[in-house]
């Protein structure tokens, strides 16, 4: 008989995946003794849970798989991509109130970056999108602090040396030169921390303005800055196909 594969996840992850709250919240509930696994109190967030067999309860109530939500937000600059900020600055969660479920951000945009940000409680899809091996294209519009030569654009396209290694080939298009600045569009297949800003620094320029305009097949079309909408079923299916994600996560 074919043996069923065991899917093990840490307890904090199981709670956040079920849409109960963020992982930070989950860790504090676990620490505060509100969570049981198979009727036994567990206070270690890294406790392994067999997703198919173990029963997890929060305040005595079994977890149920939350309805999947997929939120496309046009993030303005000045909002942090984090759930809670100790300094109480605005976060992207201030822009999507009342969803009724916790959705995590798929990757991050810097405080000063605006543009397309996806939030979801479908962790399988989120992981597939952020996995650099899946090479999901992300397109950014950049205002550079200098005029960039064709050679500099070629360098960005071929790959530049960053502190965490050479960047993978990108697609770079000059949009226009205006006075002292070059506007360009860059599509990268990875999503390292502050990658576009660091790439521009590597060719002796700087990012003055950064907008993410596209993620896979998703665009900001029809969405005003600061607003959000849910993805259509077709968009989710398309994204899942591009990212090579399995239906169930
Ligand atoms: N690259 C950056 O440098 N910043 C972002 O926010 C996204 C990509």
Structure overview:
With 249 residues, the protein is α+β, with helices and mostly antiparallel strands. It folds into three domains: 8-62, Roll (Structural Genomics Hypothetical 15.5 Kd Protein In mrcA-pckA Intergenic Region, Chain A), CATH 3.10.290; 70-132 and 218-243, 2-Layer Sandwich (Alpha-Beta Plaits), CATH 3.30.70; 137-215, Alpha-Beta Plaits (2-Layer Sandwich), CATH 3.30.70. It has six helices and 17 strands. The protein has helices spanning 11-17, 23-31, 123-130, 150-158, 195-202, 233-243, and strands spanning 8-10, 35-37, 40-41, 48-50, 56-58, 61-62, 70-75, 104-105, 113-120, 138-144, 161-162, 165-166, 171-178, 181-188, 207-215, 218-219, 228-230. The strands form four sheets. Strands 7, 8, 9, 10, 13, 14, 15, 16 and 17 form a nine-stranded mixed β-sheet that branches. The protein has a four-stranded antiparallel β-sheet with strand order 3-2-5-6. Strands 1-4 form a two-stranded antiparallel ribbon. Helix 1 crosses helix 2. The model has no long low-confidence stretch (mean pLDDT 91). It binds uracil. The site of uracil (URA) has 8 residues, from helix 5.
């Amino acid at each position: 008989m074919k043996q069923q594969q065991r899917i093990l996840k840490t307890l904090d992850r199981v709670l956040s995946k079920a849409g109960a709250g963020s992982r930070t919240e989950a860790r504090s509930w676990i620490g505060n003794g509100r969570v049981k696994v198979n009727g036994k109190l567990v206070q270690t967030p890294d406790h392994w849970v067999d997703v198919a067999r173990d029963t997890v309860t929060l305040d005595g109530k079994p977890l149920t798989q939350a309805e999947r939500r997929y939120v496309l937000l046009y993030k303005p600059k000045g909002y942090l991509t984090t759930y809670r900020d100790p300094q109480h600055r605005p976060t992207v969660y201030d822009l999507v109130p009342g969803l009724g479920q916790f959705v995590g951000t798929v990757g991050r945009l810097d405080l000063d970056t605006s543009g397309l940000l996806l939030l979801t409680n479908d962790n399988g899809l989120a992981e597939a999108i952020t996995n650099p091996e899946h090479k999901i294209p992300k397109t950014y519009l950049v205002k550079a602090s200098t005029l960039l030569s064709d050679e500099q654009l070629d360098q960005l396209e071929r790959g530049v040396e960053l502190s965490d290694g050479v960047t993978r080939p990108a697609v770079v298009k000059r949009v226009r030169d205006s006075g002292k600045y070059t506007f360009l569009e860059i599509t990268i297949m990875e999503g390292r921390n502050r990658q576009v800003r660091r790439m521009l620094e590597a060719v002796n320029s700087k990012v003055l303005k950064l907008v993410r305009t596209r993620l896979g097949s998703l665009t900001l079309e029809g969405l005003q800055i600061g607003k959000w909408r849910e993805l259509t079923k077709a968009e989710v299916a398309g994204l899942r196909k591009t990212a090579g994600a399995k239906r169930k996560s």
